[in-house]
Amino acid sequence: MTARSAAGQPVGAARGAPGDRRRESRSKRASRPAPADSAALTSDAMRAALVASEPRAAADLGAIRIVRAPGRVNLIGEHTDYNLGLVLPAAIDLEIRIAFVPTDDRRVELVSSATGDRARFDLDAIGPRRRAWIDYVAGTAWALAEAGIAMRGLRGILVSSLPTASGLSSSAALELAAAWALADTPGGNIPPLSLARICQRAENAYVGVNCGLMDQFASACGVTGDAVLLDCRSLEFRPVALPLATHCLVVIHTGSTRSLTTSQYNLRRAQCEAAAAALAAENPAIESLRDVTPAMLPRVRALVGDAEFRRCRHVVSENGRVAETIDALAAGDLDAVGRLWAASHASLRDDFEVVSPELDALVEIATTVPGVAAARMTGAGFGGCTINLVARDAVDALRDAVAAEYPTRTGLAPRVYVVDAVAGAGFLAG
Ligand code: GLA
Description:
Layout: H1 21-26, H2 43-53, H3 55-59, E1 65-74, E2 86-87, E3 89-103, E4 107-112, E5 118-122, H4 134-146, E6 153-160, H5 170-182, H6 192-207, H7 214-221, E7 226-231, E8 237-241, E9 247-253, H8 261-282, H9 297-303, H10 306-331, H11 334-350, H12 357-367, E10 372-378, E11 385-391, H13 395-410, E12 415-419, E13 426-427
Parallel strand pairs: 4-6
Antiparallel strand pairs: 1-3, 1-13, 2-7, 3-6, 4-5, 7-8, 9-11, 9-12, 10-11
Helix pairs in contact: 4-5, 4-6, 5-6, 5-7, 6-7, 8-10, 9-10, 10-11, 12-13
The chain binds alpha-D-galactopyranose.
């Protein structure tokens, strides 16, 4: 059978020469399970779907388990995680769920409920990546095995409400859901942060995306009603209260397919590391861009090329903006949060060069709507979504403004999601 991604694209067609824009956008990050409507995520619906597709589940209803893992928005601190800086993500109620029955045969077999696409592998012979959504599951099994975590086989069904390839971390959510489903004891009996690091290793070493820790961290360690500040060097983290009594988080999808994300992402990371290495050659105390202060920037400019310099300037200024956003939120100063998010967006556009014209258009439109306290792109960039902090009574006005202006400006259909901040991955109660 021809392997197909859950989005229905033939996975074989995704293999292509590096730099092939269309092919790369369909491969790796793009080939994740298609989103379902949220009714498909209820326990009853998932149990019924599993029973219909898996005789072992029908034979032993009591053995059925359901795990869930959320996507995330990043409020601020973009492209800082792999530079050992600060990030402020929130896990959101768009998520991936797996209903499954554990088995003793070491085989893992999953069906995407959105497409009927069935994929399988053996825990004792995981093999190389296939450039399909199952890679995130197989890679997680590979990384769990490497970490010495005991696993069992399973037969399961996978349902997602997360839009794919949108910068909302559907890959991390799939990894965390897989980790909870595969581990013999809940969550591998290890702290969620450790599980996040194992899932990051799956993505880095098995899937081949050189991502930082933020996405897996957010999906593993999310806190209901809060954002979570992570120091990516010390790995200390803490919840950060959001003004959710008066405001809500609104994610707006550009409707554009991300392209060249993986190669451009890995290039940005390499440019940051090159800037850090140039400084370290003069000053061994510099281990990463986290150690670079604004006062050092003139020296950076003298040492590295223009692109590396601007990548570095973004990371240094962005770390400062995360700290300032924490202070502004604590002080209830949403005007300051708005200025900081605007500066973050501009820095990602002008210095880091990851903002598409569609992301820019959405932020420009949102900024004109009274009651939108803050707006910026979120995630890796190159398409995907914006995040907006919006007064509850201004959400409809934001929807109307986006519907009225965005399609005529871009020819694309936006999607608006009002999201809640939720807890990290785990078993679904009930
Ligand atoms: C992607 C990566 C993260 C992080 C963001 C940018 O989501 O997976 O590790 O680098 O981009 O902030």
